[in-house]
Amino acid sequence: MRPTIMNLSRNAALALLALLAFAAQSESAHAVTFQTLYSFTGGSDGAWPAVSLGTGGSTLYGGTFFGGANGDGVVFSMALNGSNFQTLHTFAGSDGTRPTGLTVVGSTLFGATLLNTTSKGTVFSMATDGSTFQTIHTFTGGI
User: What is the pLDDT of residue 6?
Assistant: First the structure.
């Protein structure tokens, strides 16, 4: 039979309650404080930051699913404290739409898009300063 609170001895039940109280105190002592680093306007800086974030040195890189000049999403960078926000690339449809993944390798960003105007998405690379954007692969769909 599995032990339950009902069939534990009084001392075991008190010990369990003390352990739970200690755990609750310990958990609150290690509470995490969240801070908004940047609030997207939905304009040229993008909207719906849904791309996983990557870091390179003291810079944070990410992307948005919508927004930018064409409404197809952007890749951005900012300092780890939220300052120095920059739009590095604005998607235009032909180079991809709806970026969904991003990783940093050295001074190069690699990412993927959900779609583009003629296919089922792309894999892209670009320098961490936003230069040298190129489509590495275009998915054509099918099974």
Answer: 47
